[in-house]
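User: My instructor asked us to take a sequence, write out its structure as tokens, and then describe one feature of it. I'm not sure where to start. Here is the sequence I was given:
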Amino acid sequence: MLYFIKANDTLHDISVRFRSSIQAILRANIICDPNRIFPGTPLMIPQTGINLPQAGGNPYYVIQPGDTLECLAFRFHSPVETLKEINHLNYSAPLLPGTELLVGVQKYNSKELYDRWTAAGDTDLKCSASSNHEVFFRGSYEWEAIGDPGIPYLAELLKHPCDGVKLGAVLSLGRIASSNAQQLLGAFIKQSNDPLIIEVAQTALQRIQVVQQTKNKRFHLTMHDWLILKDPISSSIQTNIPKGTVVIGIRWNIPSPFQEEGPKGGLQMFDYIQIVNTGQTGFMPRVGYNSIWLI
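Assistant: Let's start with the prediction itself. The structure tokens for your sequence are:
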């Protein structure tokens, strides 16, 4: 089940109330310091005989007070050095609560990732819907980890004849969200003649502009018209939100506590987000292949 932490709660109290254990709750959620939990945080309470993915992060994680890189590296099965490199962290600076980290991403250099994308898009067979997701959608987070050094390679990928490659490159630029990415994407929009790709590129450019203005990569934009739910179940009260809505993630990667099936099979996953303009919070369901309709 899912429980929202209340003021003065402790993990011991919660474990007793729900007949669980502190260790079981820690295994079910990304929590580094069991003595520091925060009101308003959705917490997965494990139930006997039901195995769910851990809640709290992927592809992003919001740093909490008490977090350390060593703890997060252990929880996300990633070396500390990799977490530092893919998030461009200063080696001596402390983690800042409220900062969003990229997690669960493989580390590539620009040439390796460029070659991988080019090979995946060089034939009609490989440039398929499934390849579009597995290589180009997931890979957009890998380009985000590379950052500005990947911009010249993404410029070449924007010229590729495969639409999946071009869309993936557009998403990647929106995720990198630097001034160099903004310049390249602006030029691409002026030169492209594909209305569907231009539409996604305009949203990606809008996201870059928001990040550049706020200096905060925690702001994301919806790629399509979508919705949030009051509770993490499809039958819950829903609020429709239009494409381009600015949101922030509060808690990422929350498995369905009701074991609801996702649109492409497997477990339905949610992200607990807040709409920036209204302050409204809710659970945004992920779509096929566990994809998030956010840039």
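For the description part of your assignment, you could build on this observation: The longest strand covers residues 246-255. Try explaining in your own words what that tells you about the chain.
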